[in-house]
Amino acid sequence: MITFIGLGPMGQAMVRALVKAGHEVTVWNRTPSKAEGLGATVAPTVADALAASEVVFLSLTDYQVMFDLIDGQTVDGKVIINLSSDTPATTRRAAEWTAQRGATLIVGGVMVPDELLATDSSYVFYSGPENVVRQHESLLAVIGRVDYVGEDPALAQLFYQAQLTIFLTSLSAYLHATALVGSAGVAPEKYVPWAAEVFDNLSYYLPEAAENIAHGQHPGERANIVMMGATADHIVGASTEAKLDLALPQAVKSLYDRAIAAGRGGETWTSLYEVIAK
């Protein structure tokens, strides 16, 4: 028996996957109608849902909702798997808060949209006590690949947010690029192959970048900050002429400007890490 609290699109998809895998699932949601058609037992109250199982999944807006729902409830001996997003500090506080009530918190960061859950593309970062994660690994694997990243409860959040930093920023960059060529009448669908080529090639740069960052050395024999900063400046200029929003290209240009001001103009682009990480 499993308890699942929170039936937004992600929660609904996870419950469907768990039921399909043969698990008995008890659910609770503020709007009970969201449980219709899921094949799960609907608990009338949070207390009833918590009482139904020793393993409790949460898929909520943030951790404050967990505090509000569980405070005052009996959770002693339970494993709470919180798949909600929040800050690292709040997550660490939640682990302590949960332990004070006799429960164990496992933190999860789901890295695919609801339509890809329980497919080969699905993976979830987990952090917290490794022995507890491993004990329930076959259950967790129903949702997606189990990527355990460490005992610190905040690590799953950090990996989740790191991945979404790349994802959200990249999608914004694609939209800006599409608007830039669109200012000259280029249709969005015509630009797609070239945008896809950039995305496909980005991973080529990562191993060398990681090595540079790890050693704090950023040799700039091929392309340095000054050269790439000039390109960043040209993008701002082109965007200005196209009357586009300048927030994204100006943010990128700012990194290059500050690296040059710090005396890193002759280094390669990975030295922007030193500006970002300070």
Please characterize this protein's 3D structure.
This protein has 278 residues and is α/β, with parallel strands linked by helices. It is 50% helix and 13% strand. The mean pLDDT is 97.
Biggest sheet overview: 8 strands, mixed
Into how many domains do the coordinates divide?
A: 2
Secondary structure class reads alpha/beta
Q: Report the count of strand segments.
A: 8
Order of helices and strands: EHEEHEHEHEEHHEHHHHHH
Distance between the termini: 48 Å
Topology-level CATH name of the largest domain: Rossmann fold
Low-confidence stretches: none
Short summary of the structure?
This protein is α/β, with parallel strands linked by helices and 278 residues long. It has helices spanning 9-20, 46-51, 63-70, 88-100, 130-135, 137-140, 154-182, 188-201, 206-215, 225-241, 247-261, 272-277; strands spanning 2-5, 25-28, 41-42, 55-58, 79-82, 104-110, 123-127, 145-150. α7 (154-182) crosses α8.
